[in-house]
Design goal:
The chain is built from ten helices and two strands. By secondary structure, it is mainly α.
């Protein structure tokens, strides 16, 4: 639609973080505004009088933990130099960036009807990319996409393409990163957690998922058991 054209030279300028932007910066952006946030539901700025749409993406907590570990290792601002096992303990306790993964997701799921939310799963973006693109497009009320349009979007937003794209791969933040230790875009795979978790740690993650999210059938396959790929 061209709504994002002319807003900046890279992803952080085109779709800024809500929590890193001032009210004045947000207000100055043309409508419809596209923003991203890691804020939990309870800290989400919202006004019933203002119509907003929210796309919430969940990911298996084990893969999310591995990804966040490398993220914390890669950005010097986090000052994390510990091993994965120590980081996983912090993740289980909710003492990581953006707080408890389980509570965060539960709050959005519980309040899905309060907000206009499209809840997506990272795993399905991998396995059902074309369908997910159409679903997002329809949810946002954008003009219909042809099959070839969807395939182009799928190609342009693929992990491998974006990892090489300087407007998407956070290379503009290299001065504040330990990029040789952990690149911003690392693997983007589903199931990489099996290369990091012990059975005991896997069981503890499954237990917490069952305790907090067990009432929601959509998250049942996040209780994975333990196996090596």
């Amino acid at each position: 639609t061209g709504a994002l054209q002319g807003l900046g030279s890279h992803l952080l300028e085109v779709i800024p973080w809500l929590e890193n932007s001032s009210h004045e910066q947000i207000a100055a952006r043309p409508s419809p505004r596209c923003l991203k946030t890691h804020n939990p539901y309870e800290h989400l700025a919202r006004d019933p009088a203002i119509r907003c749409k929210y796309i919430v993406v969940s990911r298996n907590p084990k893969d999310a933990c591995v990804s966040l570990y490398h993220h914390a290792k890669g950005f010097s601002v986090f000052k994390y130099s510990g091993d994965f096992e120590s980081f996983a303990e912090l993740f289980l306790e909710g003492k990581v960036e953006s707080g408890c993964w389980w509570t965060h997701l539960k709050q959005y799921k519980q309040n899905k009807e309060d907000l206009d939310i499209l809840l997506l799963r990272y795993e399905e973006l991998h396995s059902q990319g074309l369908y997910m693109i159409k679903q997002i497009n329809d949810f946002l009320g954008l003009p219909s996409l042809s099959e070839s349009d969807c395939k182009r979007v799928l190609t342009e937003t693929s992990f491998d393409k974006m990892k090489k794209d300087p407007s998407a791969n956070y290379s503009w933040r290299d001065d504040g990163r330990k990029k040789d230790e952990s690149p911003f875009m690392r693997k983007g795979k589903v199931g990489d957690w099996t290369n990091f978790f012990t059975k005991d740690l896997s069981d503890r993650f499954d237990k917490k998922t069952k305790e907090i999210l067990g009432e929601f059938e959509i998250f049942n396959d996040y209780i994975t058991g333990f196996s090596k790929l």
